[in-house]
Amino acid sequence: MLPCVCWLQPILVLLSSVFWTRGENCPATCQCPDPHTVNCNGRGLTRLPEEIPLDVRRLLLADNWIPHIPSDFLVLYSDLVYLDLRNNSLSYIEPGTLSTTSRLVFLDLGSNNLTEIPTGTFGESRSLIKLRLGNNPYLSMVSEDAFLGLTSLRELELERNALSSLKVGALSQLPSLRVVRLEGNPWVCNCNFASLFEWLIKNIHKLPNGVEGMECSLPMDGRRVSLTQLTKDSFRECQATLTLTDLLIIIFSGISVSVVAIMTSFFLASTVHCFQRWSKGTKGDEEDSEE
């Protein structure tokens, strides 16, 4: 028995060292308080660290200068559930970059330099529960389908960005949404904002502070007013505003009516002309018979 144990000992040591290294292989500039957490907060990083353990679950990269995330970055980290990238220099996220992991639950992209959230940014990350996108001072556009497929998302933060408008579809496509933050944006009180205002009133229970602290500027003079001073009647004039579809219907209807009118006039004129010729022919025949 003893010779067998001695023979297996090197193999057991090798296997244990492999499994230990997989969890303990911490990047040189970071800290790893446990085998599944990598903490690189505030390390002055200008790019993603190398040699991140493949079994990492919590990756903390806040307060650095990281400008870009490779589109294939998350392919190998299938166990990642918590990713903190707040307060970096990210200006753009390639569509699909964040959809390669199926277990991501928490994602913080706040306090960056993002300018837009296009369709496909998050793919269909069905496990994502909390998404932070606040404090991006240049974020002025969120696609209507930006959050399509995030069926488990409960908390969405879009506060203190540069949003002047937001399509209601971007929010109504989130069936599990419980909390949304939209305060601190330069909203404009025009007809594009009317549908969002109606959604906010209907879902005011999802706003942590209601519409308190939310303002919008009047399109005429730029004066900012609190949303608490507005009602649905404030956008009454927008109900009479014609959409592009309405205009196309009106134009098509007008053309159709014109064509029908022309054809009717032509038919009537032809009928009258034929009747006149028939009348003249009948009168001529009567005169000939009398002679």
Automatic annotation (TrEMBL):
Gene3D superfamilies: Ribonuclease Inhibitor
The keyword RNA-binding is annotated on this UniProt entry: no
Location of the LRRNT domain: 25-58
InterPro entries: Cys-rich_flank_reg_C, KCNMA1_auxiliary, Leu-rich_rpt, Leu-rich_rpt_typical-subtyp, LRR_dom_sf, LRRNT
Residues of the signal peptide: 1-23
Domain LRRCT: 185-239
Tree of life domain: Eukaryota
Gene Ontology MF: a single term: potassium channel activator activity
Localization terms from the record: Cell membrane
Record bears the keyword Transmembrane: yes
UniProt topology in membrane: Single-pass membrane protein
SMART domains with a match to the protein in the record: LRR_TYP, LRRCT, LRRNT
Alphabetically ordered keywords of this record: Cell membrane, Disulfide bond, Ion channel, Ion transport, Leucine-rich repeat, Membrane, Repeat, Signal, Transmembrane, Transmembrane helix, Transport
TM helices/strands, residue ranges: 247-269
A GO term from the CC aspect: voltage-gated potassium channel complex
Location (main, coarse): membrane
PANTHER family according to UniProt: GH08155P, LEUCINE-RICH REPEAT-CONTAINING PROTEIN 38
Assembly behavior: Interacts with KCNMA1.
Identification of the protein by name: Leucine rich repeat containing 38
Species whose genome carries this gene: Nothobranchius furzeri (Turquoise killifish)
Lineage: Eukaryota, Metazoa, Chordata, Craniata, Vertebrata
Encoding gene (name): LRRC38
